[in-house]
Each structure stands twice: as structure tokens, then as C-alpha cells.
Design goal:
Distance between the termini: 27 Å
Order of helices and strands: HEEHHEHEHHEEHH
Helix content: 40-55%
Strand content: 5-15%
Number of helices: 8
Bound molecules: uracil
Radius of gyration: 15 Å
Mean pLDDT: 98
Number of strands: 6
């Protein structure tokens, strides 16, 4: 199994898909590498590409508030994305780009060994939970795979576009916190 330094070196030099061409920075992930909970988004946007850090733009500010609402912060959890390089014009990452880059995310969660992985939005959920995942239908459900509890909620960008979804996201967040408490006490 490779370690974090080796993973960083490989990902920083990655040229395995077209997304490497337009990037300013690779966005591997941030936070606590011993966290019991991981949050996974779709891919870097403009701000993230410029800074080399996930969720630092407007969606990230909302994610910080979502974390704070359940007593967490970005230093104590781990935050990453399905793809590590910004898709041009913020388009959805293509299936082959996701598949290639998922190898890195899988190494990340093998190294971190979280009990819970929260998918933020559809792209993370179809990549990590099941290809036919529907956010409207399946958000808030739990999927147990290889020792990890997976769930999904709305992407913060979706909440910025449609505030009426915030109530359901809040329900999901409360359930996530409860599950975390339950698993931490086991
Ligand atoms: N949206 C994402 O999915 N990830 C980020 O890092 C920023 C915005």
C-alpha cells in the first residue's frame, strides 16, 4: 500500500486523462487524515483549481456552514472530490475521467479508513454508491459497503441554486451526525 507522500507525488504529476491539460493545481483533498467521516464532492471549480484545495469557493462556504450545523469543521473531517482536476467550464466529469480518478479516491479512503463517506451530490453518489443513484429518491439512505457506511445529500451548489432543498439537507445532516455518534461509541 502506498503512503500519502507517494500518492501526492503521483497525483500531482498525473496525466492519465484530458483534465490535466487545463489545471492550475491538482486538488487532492484536505483535512484530518484520521477522520471517521469523509465528504466527497464532484470536482474542483475555479477557486479550488486556483488554490489547490477543495470547496473553497461559494459552495465551500456553504459546506463549512453545513458542517458547523452539526458541530464539525473542515479541519477535523476529510474533504475530497471524485476528480482531482477541474473540468473545463465546470462541466460534469465524464465517466472515463471519473473511473480513472476514482483509483486515487479509493487509495485515499483506504489510507483514512473512515466509518462514513458522505457523497455531496449526484456525481459522487453515482461514482461511489451505485450508478443509478437518484439524489431526490435516495438521498439520506445508508449503503453499507466493505466496512464503510455511505450516504448522500444535496451538493452545496444545488442548495445555493434552490434554497427549498435546505430543509431536506438539514434532515440528512442530522442523521449523519447521529450515525457518526453511534459509530464513534462502538
Ligand atoms: N464543487 C465540488 O464538487 N467540489 C469542490 O471542491 C468545489 C465545488
Amino acid at each position: 500500500m502506498i503512503n500519502w507522500d507517494e500518492l501526492e507525488k503521483i497525483v500531482n504529476n498525473c496525466g492519465r486523462c484530458e483534465l490535466c491539460r487545463g489545471r492550475h493545481n491538482v486538488v487532492l483533498g484536505t483535512g484530518n487524515r484520521n477522520s471517521k467521516i469523509m465528504f466527497v464532492g464532484e470536482g474542483p471549480g475555479y477557486h479550488e483549481d486556483m488554490r489547490g484545495e477543495p470547496f473553497v469557493g461559494p459552495a465551500g462556504q456553504l459546506l463549512d456552514k453545513m458542517l458547523a450545523s452539526i458541530g464539525l469543521n473542515r479541519q477535523e473531517v476529510y474533504i475530497a472530490n471524485v476528480v482531482k482536476c477541474r473540468p473545463p467550464g465546470n462541466r460534469d466529469p465524464l465517466p472515463e475521467e471519473r473511473e480513472t480518478c476514482l483509483n486515487y479516491l479509493r487509495i485515499q479512503y483506504l489510507l483514512i479508513n473512515p466509518k462514513i463517506i458522505v457523497c455531496l451530490g449526484r456525481i459522487a453518489a453515482i461514482s461511489l454508491i451505485t450508478p443509478n443513484f437518484s439524489i431526490t429518491r435516495d438521498r439520506g439512505k445508508w449503503f453499507y459497503k466493505k466496512g464503510v457506511q455511505f450516504t448522500a445529500t444535496y451538493h452545496p451548489s444545488a442548495l445555493l441554486r434552490d434554497e427549498s432543498k435546505k430543509r431536506l439537507a438539514w434532515e440528512d445532516l442530522k442523521a449523519i451526525k447521529e450515525k457518526l455518534n453511534e459509530l464513534e461509541n462502538n
